[in-house]
């Protein structure tokens, strides 16, 4: 059964899914470590807002400085959290950015930056907290995207980072299952957060010129999403994603699905359903092979 009171870490807690997940989990009675960059700078107002809500509602929220791209920052935050909690039950890898533009025009450095947040960031966090998660059984939930399963034009760099993250954590999940740690992936469609505008402009203006009028398409695409978000309605409410994460946390250990799609799916549910039996057969074959070879976790 899921534990009544859990210690939860959420990355990227200053806005969007992360911010809402912090509040949702804290309102369920859990202790939540809301991690974010620049808690004494650009995110100071968000820090104060979370702490004010926590005080008014008697919630157990602790804001911690943490940059998922900086190993030293993670090490300091890990030490701070370990002083506050003798165990960790849940890690929510939410921090992310989205690069939208002409894929060819992004520099190698920009692509590395995207991967550092969306791919290496969750891995750094998992490596930091798995020693604690493995002690009593825990959960790693990764916020991906439908773009982590489908390829969209002008989202190539972002898709690559999410595809890589999903592959790593699905594989890791199979390896951790015998040790009582669940790994899940949440795949939101488009929601009304600021993620779409979180990435930089393409660095190579000369490449952009070679695309002519097509160079305007990424901007037009973003404008279309903005119009949809401004219309409001439940379909674009990011609280849905926080609720799904909460449901996964409160699902019985070993019974959580690998992937959960939220919102407009663009066919991702159909894709996941089609791939799942193939993946299950593969894992069954691997387990059988290991059994024949006498391989076990002991």
From TrEMBL:
UniProt superkingdom: Bacteria
EC number of this enzyme: 1.1.-.-
Transmembrane regions: none
Record's signal peptide: none
Gene3D superfamilies xrefs: NAD(P)-binding Rossmann-like Domain (3.40.50.720)
Top-level EC class: oxidoreductase
Oxidoreductase among keywords: yes
Gene Ontology molecular function, alphabetical: oxidoreductase activity
Keyword field: Oxidoreductase
SUPFAM superfamilies to which the protein is assigned, alphabetical: NAD(P)-binding Rossmann-fold domains
InterPro entries: NAD(P)-bd_dom_sf, Sc_DH/Rdtase_CS, SDR_fam, SDR_oxidoreductase
Record-stated family: Belongs to the short-chain dehydrogenases/reductases (SDR) family.
Protein name: SDR family oxidoreductase
Organism whose genome encodes this protein: Flagellimonas marina
């Amino acid at each position: 059964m899921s534990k009544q009171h859990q210690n939860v870490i959420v990355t990227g807690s200053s806005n969007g899914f992360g911010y809402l997940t912090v509040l949702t989990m804290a309102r369920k009675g859990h202790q939540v470590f809301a991690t974010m960059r620049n808690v004494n700078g650009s995110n100071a107002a968000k820090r104060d807002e979370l702490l004010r809500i926590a005080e008014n509602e008697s919630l157990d929220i602790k804001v911690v400085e943490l940059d998922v791209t900086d190993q030293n920052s993670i090490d300091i935050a890990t030490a701070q959290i370990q002083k506050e909690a003798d165990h960790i039950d849940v890690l929510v890898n939410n921090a992310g950015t989205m690069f939208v533009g002409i894929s060819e025009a992004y520099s190698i450095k920009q692509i590395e930056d995207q991967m550092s947040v969306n791919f290496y960031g969750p891995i750094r966090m998992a490596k930091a907290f798995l020693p604690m998660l493995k002690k009593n059984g825990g959960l790693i939930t990764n916020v991906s995207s439908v773009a982590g399963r489908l390829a969209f034009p002008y989202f190539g760099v972002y898709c690559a980072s999410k595809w890589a993250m999903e592959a790593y954590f699905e594989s890791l999940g199979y390896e951790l299952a015998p040790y009582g740690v669940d790994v899940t992936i949440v795949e939101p469609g488009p929601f009304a957060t600021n993620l779409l505008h979180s990435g930089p402009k393409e660095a190579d203006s000369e490449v952009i010129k070679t695309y002519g009028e097509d160079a305007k398409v990424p901007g037009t695409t973003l404008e279309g999403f903005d119009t949809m978000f401004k219309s409001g309605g439940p379909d674009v409410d990011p609280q849905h994603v926080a609720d799904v994460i909460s449901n996964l946390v409160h699902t019985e250990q070993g019974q959580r699905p690998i992937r959960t799609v939220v919102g407009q799916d663009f066919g991702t549910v159909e894709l996941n359903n089609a791939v799942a039996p193939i993946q299950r057969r593969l894992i069954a074959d691997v387990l059988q092979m290991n059994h024949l070879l006498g391989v076990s976790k002991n």
